[in-house]
Amino acid sequence: MDAFQQGLVELLPRMRRLARSLCRDAAAADDLVQQASLRALSARDQWTPGTRLDSWVFTIMKRLWIDEGRSRARWTKVLAPAEEGERVADAAVSSPEQRLEAARVAEAMAALPNDQRLAVALVLVDGLSYREAAEVLEVPVGTLTSRLVRGRQALLARLEQEGIAP
Amino acid sequence: MIVTDETIAAYVDGELADEPRAALEAQLAADASLAARVEAQRRLRSRLSAAFDPVLAEPAPRDLLALIRGEAPPATVVDLAARRKAGPTWGWPQGAAVAASLLVGVLFGAAFVRIAQPTAILSPAADGVTAAGPLARALDGQLASDQPAAAAVRVGLTFRDGDGRYCRTFATSHSGGLAGVACRAGGGWRVEASARAAPAPSGGMRTAAAETPPAVLAAVDAMIAGEPLDARQEAAARAAGWR
């Protein structure tokens, strides 16, 4: 395994978390990660060694996710769906209340417009800086921050509606 | 001083410069409603973490890891026939499609590491995997009824699927032995299913059927519309550019 493959393997957990925060369900998130991995492997010549692999891969994910939403086309399923038991974390680490709240948060995310969801996912879920997130999204920092503010307001409003105190 | 949501967000995200941050913190101590707004944003951040961070601890799917590492596929995943026998977990033919695509995925590993080489036989595309190099040439030009015994890629059945596309099964010694079925898509051949091929017996007679793993034949079963092409139809289809 070379450095690129190693980097991609190490990035997988973050790719999967990002995908899960963007996609409505875990299966779609897995598809997104698979497609992005394929794309990254086939386009690896376009990545400049020494630059951030995460930003480059996240940009691939963003484009795939937006294109998929636009065309409404499903990706060809390339790999097997994750087996039962591969998604154990949800059940293992939390109480039923926490799981319920997590589900509400996920629903609130899914209800956000794409632009806002991407901004929230990159900054609040993945923890990128504003500048890094703006680069991934290929927009000015000011655009990123205004999407982020609107996304936050919408999330808070919706969660409050659902009885989850701000 | 009125504090905008944008400033509060930047503060919570650690994006506020020293000077405005000091000013905001001074104001926070004396302004309960401002403190509540900051707290709400903090809690939103931690709620998002609580909802999505557990994904970090999940093991990545093995197939995906194998694909990235360019490793041989995990043997356990390739057994489509067993899955069929196991009962109607999936509807038919959706089950076949899922299982067939599963086969494509787990077998990438071996072919992928050879991408940069002229003998690469699979090429990742945006919507799947297409045949490349010697495999693409064989699918384009080789007739099952007339192929050299020593050909590195052998073509088996040719048939039309439910959408009227031409599909062809193949077996090759490339990539450590691979057999599969590919269908005409966009001027190329999209690999719809594949599986590890058993090595051909040295010196023995080889037939397309013997070379084609049961998993691939099962995929063909699920895809085929009508009968496979005979030698004359196959030649005519090639002459027409597989359209």
Could you explain the architecture of this structure?
Chain A is mostly helical and 166 residues long. Chain A folds into 2 domains: 1-87, Rna Polymerase Sigma Factor, Chain: A, CATH 1.10.1740; 93-166, Arc Repressor Mutant, subunit A. Chain A contains 8 helices and no strands. Chain B contains 11 helices and 6 strands. The longest helix of chain B has 21 residues, at 32-52. Mean pLDDT of chain B is 75; it is low at 72-118 and 200-209. In chain B, the strands form 2 sheets. Chain B has a 4-stranded antiparallel sheet with strand order 3-4-5-6. In chain B, strands 1-2 form a two-stranded antiparallel ribbon. In chain B, β5 (178-185) and β6 form a beta hairpin. The chains are: A mainly alpha (166), B alpha+beta (243). The interface between A and B is large, with 61 and 50 residues.
Summarize the structure.
Chain A is an all-alpha fold.
Q: Secondary-structure blueprint of this entry?
A:
The complex is a heterodimer of chains A (166) and B (243).
Chain A: H1 3-22, H2 26-42, H3 53-71, H4 89-93, H5 96-110, H6 114-125, H7 130-137, H8 141-161
Chain B: H1 5-12, H2 18-30, H3 32-52, H4 54-57, H5 62-69, H6 80-85, H7 94-112, E1 122-125, E2 128-131, H8 133-141, E3 153-160, E4 166-172, E5 178-185, E6 188-196, H9 208-211, H10 214-223, H11 231-239
Antiparallel strand pairs in B: 1-2, 3-4, 4-5, 5-6
Helix pairs in contact in B: 1-3, 5-7, 7-10
